[in-house]
Amino acid sequence: MKNLFPERSYMKTGEIKKLLTTEENVVRGTNRVKRGFARMTKGGVIMDVTTVEQAHIAEEAGAVAVMVLDKLPIDVRRSGGVARPASIPIIRDILDAITIPVMAKCRLGHTAEALVLQETGADCIDESEVLTPADEFRHIWKWDFVAPFVCGALDLGSALRRIDEGAAMIRTKGEPGTGNVAEAVRHIRLVNNEIREIKGLYEADENQELMFKAREMKVSFETVLETAKLGRLPTVNFAAGGISTPADAALMMKLGSDGIFVGSGIFKSEDALQRASAVVLATSYWENPEVVIEAQEMVSETKAMLGLTGSEMKFSMQERGADS
Amino acid sequence: MAKKNVTIGVLAIQGDVLEHVLMMDDVLAKKGIPTKTVRVKTPEQLEKIDGLIIPGGESTVMSRFIEEKRFNKKLIKIIQDKAKNGMALFGSCAGTIMLSKSSTDKVVKGFTQALLELMDIDVLRNKYGRQQESFELDLTIQGFGKKSFPGVFIRAPIIKTAAKNVEVLCRTTEEIYAAKQGKLLAVTFHPELTDDTRFHELFLEIVLSEK
User: Which residues in chain B are closer than 8 Å to A41, comparing Cβ atoms?
Assistant: First the structure.
């Protein structure tokens, strides 16, 4: 089979090798282990939670992981000001309460915050544009961490730049806290089309054109080549931002997402557990309309979050850090 | 033994399905078997297969789906019936939890979930803790000769105890990493994340063995 995990020299220097005390030759924090973690969440739903109660609901509903944050994206929009990570005691409480993976968000480029989150023992760190960026030009250099990172992307260039920096998982951004799936659709379509284009170049043996693409996207040639060869991103790619109904989730899966992030959509509705279970069902069985309709029947549109469209938004989160 | 046309499926509710499909297809092609690995989610798809791989992923999510009534039948019942009638099963990581007759969680006490209860093993979930404790370790597997097998352990469980009728393929003093019982194969790590196809070859042999 194709080698899905080529180890490059600079990846190796970024790998942190800790030896277990009881046994020799145990290696942690490798690219394979980090990307592998993300692979295990495929076909699942990762839910934004702010409290232990919500984390329990998410686990019961069949979430594959939870994402801990201080405020749901829609509340970040409403309250304004600087959005920072969740309080450490809350992250710890959630880590103790549930068996599924726990992820937590830090600000773009805030390496110290990410180190703190790693220290809590969180399974995965989200370098997230939902929070206020700390460095407007650089993202975190993620190779130096044992914990895997998930990062947002809105086109192929931004996705591959994050992978070059060591991200183990990508989520196409959408526009968080809006309940509007349109932006998520736009971004995944864009990424898919761009991958098709470079795949075509690879199959036509147009290496010079691939090099040109790499320069245009400011990405390493190796990452572009790897992606072109695979015909998909070298890491798992989830859809995020604005997904609020089971059918939204099924649509994103149909468009080729590996899984779904749901933020405000669930806990800003009045039927959280029902809606969470329904989104999980639709994500697993997106190919079976007879199951998606069942999922869709589980939720009531009158209880859905109201949502925002583009022109009603005060500010856009998706553009944050996208060019760097 | 004459080669038979067998169909192998991967339970595609959740998890690293693609990786198993790619590796199994590779093995089938290498052994000259013309079938392709299929993704299995519905009772109809289950009926057609001779061997089922339960991939890595979140066992809680798989538990939830197999015990729920779907398409008017419970998947758990169909898988159990088919296993009794000679269908082979291969579980990696979460798949091993699903195959076990009992499982406990290291972190959250008193945690219970629906299991297939096919294999006489007790599993401890999240033995090493959370993701940051995930690791790679080369393993010596019984029957695989001298060349070690790359073990990729991701939030891995361990097999705590195995009954006498279970053949242990890899163990340390107190932990079992791989085991076989009749037509059931269970590993606590992820062969599908490596380039080493030996476990998938072994599974194909088990599927092909007399029914």
Answer: 57-58
Residues of B carrying an active site annotation:
93, 190, 192
Q: Domains in chain A, ordered, with CATH?
A: 27-181+235-298 (3.20.20.70)
The answer, for A20 touching chain B at a CB cutoff of 8 Å, is: yes
Residue B108 Cα, gap to closest chain A Cα (Å): 6
Contact state of A1 with B41 under an 8 Å Cβ cutoff: no
Domain carrying residue B50: 8-208
B97 CB within 8 Å of a chain A CB: no
Asked if A100's CB is within 8 angstroms of B58's CB, the reply is yes
Domain of B201, CATH number, reads: 3.40.50.880
Among B105, B167, B110, smallest CA distance to B130 is for: B105
- CA-CA distance, A275 to A51, in Å (whole number)? 18
Using a CB-CB distance cutoff of 8 angstroms, which residues of chain A are in contact with residue B188? none
Confirm if A17 and A28 have CB atoms less than 8 A apart: yes
Q: How many CB pairs under 8 A join A and B?
A: 136
Contacts of B137 in chain A (CB under 8 A): 23, 25-27
Closest alpha carbon to A195 in A165, A166, A163, A167: A163
Q: How many domains is chain B built from?
A: 1
The question of whether A105 is a catalytic residue gets the answer yes
**Cα torsion A47, A48, A54, A56: sign:** positive
Question: Can you tell me the distance from the alpha carbon of B50 to that of A219, in angstroms, rounded to the nearest whole number?
Answer: 45
Residue A206 CB burial class (10 angstroms; 0-12, 13-18, ≥19): middle
Tens-level pLDDT at each residue, chain A (324 residues): 333 444 444 444 444 444 333 456 788 888 999 999 999 999 999 999 999 999 999 999 999 999 999 988 888 888 888 899 999 999 999 999 999 999 999 999 999 999 999 999 999 999 999 999 999 899 999 998 999 999 999 999 999 999 999 999 999 988 887 888 999 999 999 999 999 999 999 999 999 999 999 999 999 999 999 999 999 999 999 999 889 899 999 999 999 999 999 988 888 888 899 999 999 999 999 999 999 999 999 988 777 666 666 666 667 788 787 777
From the list A2, A17, A42, A105, the catalytic residue is A105
B contacts of A98 (beta carbons < 8 Å): 108
- CA neighbor of A238 nearest in space, from A41, A4, A5, A30: A41
